[in-house]
Every structure is written in C-alpha cells, then in structure tokens.
Amino acid sequence: MADRLAGKTAIITGAGDGIGAAAVNAFVREGAAVVAVDISRSKLEQLTRTPDLESPERVVIMQGDVTDENTAFETVTICRTAFGHLDILLNVVGGSIMRKAFHELSVAEWHTVLRLNLDSVFAMTKQALLVMCAQRSGTIINTSSQMGIVGAPQLGPYNAAKGGILNLTRSLAAEYASYGIRVNAVCPGATRTQSLADDFTELEVRAGALEEWIRRHPLKRAAEPEEVAAGMLFLASDEASFVTGTGLVIDGGYTAV
Ligand SMILES: NC(=O)c1ccc[n+]([C@@H]2O[C@H](COP(=O)([O-])OP(=O)(O)OC[C@H]3O[C@@H](n4cnc5c(N)ncnc54)[C@H](O)[C@@H]3O)[C@@H](O)[C@H]2O)c1
Hints:
There is one protein chain. The protein is of the alpha/beta class. 44% of the residues lie in helices and 15% in strands. The chain has a single domain, classed as Rossmann fold (3-Layer(aba) Sandwich), CATH 3.40.50. Strands 3-2-1-4-5-6-7 form a 7-stranded parallel sheet, with helices on both faces. Strand 2, helix 2 and strand 3 (59-63) form a beta-alpha-beta unit. Helix 1 packs across helix 8, helix 3 packs parallel to helix 4 (107-135) and helix 4 runs parallel beside helix 5. It starts with 8 loop residues before the first strand and ends in a 7-residue tail after the last strand. 47% of the residues are buried. Bound molecules: nicotinamide-adenine-dinucleotide. Nicotinamide-adenine-dinucleotide binds at residues 13-14, 16-20, 38-40, 43, 65-67, 92-95, 116, 120, 143, 145, 188, 190-191, 193-196.
C-alpha cells in the first residue's frame, strides 16, 4: 500500500532514533510531509541521510527539547510555515530512564521521568490543538506502553506517566471530538531500540534480565520499531476514521496473559 497519508503533514517527536525514526520513514513513504523533531541534531542529520528515507525533501528537521513549551511552539510554527497546515501530531518522546525502588526516589528523579513522558505530551499537544481546533481537523497519537497498562517493580514513575498518557488520550478524545480531532495512543511492548538496550545495561539491571523479560512476551521476541510504526500509521490514516480514545496494544501478547 502507498499514499495512505498523501497530502498530510505530520510532526513526529523523538524522530531521530528508534520508534520515532521508523515512524518518519513509514509516514514519508505513505506520502506525508514531516517535521522531525529531536533533542539530538546529529541523530536528525543521520535520519535524513539514511537510504530508508524515501523522500528526504519532504522532511524538515527541528532540533529541540519537546518538554519545553518554546520548542513546541516553534515546531508547530515551522510546520505551518513550511506546509500551511498540521494534520498529525505523533508524540513519541519518552522513556523509563531509571529503575529504582519507589521509596528511594528523590522528588527530582520522580519529576524527571514525569517531565520527559508527560510534559512533552502536554507541550506539543497544546500547541498542536491550537492549530487543529482552528482547522477543525487533525489527529494526535501518543506513545504509552504496555507499562501504561500493567505495573512492574522499580518503574513507578514510568508506570504512572504511561498510564497517565493513556487516560489523557481518552480525555482529549472526548474533549476534541466535536472539533473533528481524533486522539489515540499506542502501547508498545519491548521494542528493539537503543533505549531498550540502555535500560538494561547502563542501569545495571542484572545479566540476562533483558532476555528474560523479552521471553515474557508470548511471541517470544521484541518488536522491531517498524512494527510499532505500522500501528501509528494506521491510527494516523483515514482507515482509522472512526477510531478515537483507544490505546492500540502492540506488545506481542504481554498484557494478554
Ligand atoms: N523501546 C521499547 O521497548 C519501548 C516500549 C514501550 C514504549 N516505548 C516508548 O516508545 C517511545 C520511543 O522509545 P524508543 O525506544 O524508540 O526511544 P529511543 O531512545 O530509541 O529514541 C528516543 C528519541 O527521542 C529523543 N529525545 C529524548 N528526549 C527528548 C526530548 N526531551 N526532546 C526531543 N527529543 C528527545 C532521543 O534523542 C531519541 O532520538 C518512548 O515514549 C518509550 O517510552 C518504548
């Protein structure tokens, strides 16, 4: 299939790597023009050089921290200036960052995880809605996690943030349906990205823990970023025209058992 997003414009956060980069490739392949935003300029530059990206001329890169409201404002402004309208916001930025017993967390650590996962969604979504409400059209896709549905030891702030994203998705779907705006989320399971590897190495989780965790997914493997991007693409496309307020679970069966 091709052209499922022909004529559409999208902002994709966390676009430089992992799931966000896979989504840029998928969205551009299906005809969208994309503002790719990431905190890392070098990752964005690498993205535009990869042979996976079919039409680099349809990608505008923007370096910035999307937890910052100024970056969010600037990103949406760039999209309107470059393309004239904003059809899709794909909020991908997030991460668990740390594993720690809840009673040992500092307030600063708690806020760091909430800021990365929730403030980023707040800042970008607010600015996008200002444009989408005026257009009376648009669709927003948030990235929750299977960890937004179930809990896990030492992931309290991440569980809270990803659960929050899922229910914020429902809240916004209800609030903005009358503007013709759909709001959905994806809930990925383990997905083969750099941050997954980092989570289990830099954070000094015991040896073998990553493999053990992946085996708890009934499909007995981690997803490829492209498999998560495929779900995002469906939610962004007109094929999902009657889908709003849902969390599409792409977790190899993790939360089914
Ligand atoms: N990888 C998994 O196993 C997995 C599972 C479930 C959910 N998720 C969620 O999927 C999303 C993407 O995860 P990933 O594994 O692809 O991550 P990743 O680390 O591979 O990529 C994240 C990208 O976001 C960028 N970034 C980080 N902070 C930023 C900020 N403040 N502003 C702008 N850009 C920023 C990074 O530079 C990087 O390019 C996250 O929300 C994550 O919680 C991932």
